[in-house]
Amino acid sequence: MNPRKALTIGMKTNSQNGSQNTAVIEVTDLKVHYGDKSALNGVSFDVYQNEILGIIGPAQSGKTTLLKVINRTLEFTPDTTVAGSVKLDGEDISTIGDVYGLRRRIGMVQPLPVGLPLSIYDNVAFAPRTAGIRSKSELDEIVERCLQQAALWEEVKDRLSTLGTKLSGGQQQRLTIARALSHQPDILCLDEFSIAVDPITTMRIEDVLKTLQTEMTILLVTNLVQQAKRLANRTAFFLNGDLIEIDTTDIIFSDNPAEQATYDYVNGTFG
Amino acid sequence: MNALMTRPELRKKIALQGIAFIIVGAALIFIWNDLKKSGATHIQTSSASRVSGILPSLLSDLNLILPISLLAVLFGVACAFYLEEWLSATSWVRRFIESQVTFLTEIPSLLYGLLAISVLFSYAGVFKEIGTPSPVQDVNESGLAVVPFQRNTTMFYAEALIFILMVIPVAIKTTQEALRSVTTPIRESAYVLGANQWQVIAKQVVPLAFPSILAGGCRAMSRALAAAALLIGIHIPDHTTGPRGIPDRFMLFLGGALLLSTISSFLKKSRLETSPTATARHD
Questions:
Q1: pTM here?
Q2: What is the pLDDT of residues A19-32, one digit of tens each?
Q3: B52-132+143-272: which CATH topology?
Q4: Considering CB atoms only, which of A78, A104, A169 is closest to B281?
Q5: pLDDT tens digits along A145-176
Q6: Number of domains chain A is built from
Q7: In this complex, do B192 and A180 lie within 8 Å of one another by their Cβ atoms?
Q8: In a domain, A231, yes or no
């Protein structure tokens, strides 16, 4: 693909939307290896302020790895090497000293929900507390707002003191979304958030994501191609660690994207 | 060859286990020689046929076991935390300690008991004690002699040493297993919220692993108690025997071991119930 072209189209879309076209995340020639195995082979693209960037692609294409590089949780996986640079607001993330501060700027929703062994309230209040918020009323407000945004408030408002791990899979998934929103991140990364959530609740969360777009930049990794089509301003298609194409969602899902592989994947004729 | 290990890994493992084997083997030969010299293999008599009831025995045993085992378990747990949370998996210090710990936990506890006899009889002057029974200072209403509450300090340290040697490796191993059960994806869920290592350990790892750690501590102590009970059961001379000729400490230790194993199994069960992986995943 031609990165130049993608960049200009992306900028055009953003200016049409009336938002700034400043790049929040700049990924340059990012290469990641797990031992001898390559997970990302030289990926370059930008993510713009207040856009929803859909990231699609089959398994083993490097989508989750990309998110893990951005919030530096890849460091917990032994034997990985990262080359190239990822800049957040112009600052190279690998040189950021306060890695916890960096992670607080990025909300992350993982594909498998993991409740902290705390109450529902404490699960959501965990991040604000680590960031130093102590006032009870302030925490109450954050917890209610986040649970409502994650479409969970109505179900749990009467039992906030029960263990988060006692919730069902779908509820735990929404709890992780509430947690990711609780520290008011600049960037929200969603890694297949709808995997355990029913279609109606998924729709409710998708509506919330559209409203959140005005406050933050959203990276949406999804296996549901239609979800990217519904939500994303731009969509990136990854395949085997390569960025095949990044363009506005309209073009990716049109009949003539730049690459044949993209067309085959989004239309389900691939592999 | 173990299919789960690559050849260099296997070679390293064999080398490390070999070192452990040589150390323990040498210790065993040493113990055997000692036993032959001291004649401990033929001892049948008890040092204190004076009847005294369970209380002095109970107090003196608790006095030894409680502080020592608590310290040993705490030390083992601290060790395991350091190995598991702060040392990298590839560090040679960690690999060395882990292989030695594995070896020590695999040794039957009776062998530790034999080591205990060897040390106690050869160096702690227990024979001297047998030769000169401590004076009876008092007789209670029922006409039974009361053995004064006293202990040979050298022997105290020797017993404590063996006890520690038995408890610590088991405590390290079970704690490490408990910490490993809190896998990286579970930890990451707290790390992505901006928590630092201390916060993750305090708020997530310890609450999840605590029942297993406690169960491990109980198991470690139960192992040591069972070994001690076995030794007393085969008539190793000791301060006190019960009124009916059954050594009180034997019953006491065996009972303690059983109780601790029961607690340990209960704790293991409750660990499964609170585990995040065991909760329902369906809506």
A1: 0.67
A2: 457 888 899 999 99
A3: MetI-like fold (1.10.3720)
A4: A169
A5: 999 888 888 888 888 888 888 888 788 888 88
A6: 1
A7: yes
A8: yes
Which pLDDT belongs to residue A23? 84
- Residue B109 is predicted with a pLDDT of 74
| Among candidates B88, B185, B204 on the partner chain, residue whose Cβ is nearest the Cβ of A117 | B204
Q: Which residues of B fall within a CB distance of 8 Å from A179?
A: 193
Å between A90 CA and nearest CA of chain B:
21
The average pLDDT across B92-116 equals: 79
Among A114, A168, A170, select the one facing B185 at the smallest CB separation: A114
User: Which CATH number do you get for residue A43?
Assistant: 3.40.50.300
Averaged pLDDT of chain A: 84
Residue A153 lies in a domain: no
pLDDT of A102 > 60? The answer is yes
- Give the contacts of B73 (CB within 8 A, at least 6 positions apart): B167, B171, B217, B220, B221
* Paired tokens of A102: 């960096």
Range of the domain at A100: 3-112+186-252
Domain boundaries, chain B: 52-132+143-272
Q: B-side interface with A, Cβ within 8 Å?
A: 88-90, 184-196, 199, 203-204, 207-208, 274, 276, 279-283
* Residues in chain B within 8 Å Cβ distance of A184: none
Is B185's CB within 8 Å of A112's CB? Answer: yes
Domain assignment present for residue A212? The answer is: yes
Q: Can you list the alpha helix ranges (DSSP code H) found in A120-258? A: 120-130, 136-149, 153-156, 169-182, 199-212, 225-231, 249-252
- Whether residue A47 is contained in a domain is answered as yes
A173 lies within 8 A of chain B by CB: no
Which residue in A247, A253, A256 sits closest to A266, CA to CA? Answer: A253
Range A36-55 burial, b when 16+ CB lie within 10 A, else e: eebbbeebbbbbbbbbbbbb
- Rg over CA atoms, chain A: 18
pLDDT reported for residue B58: 60
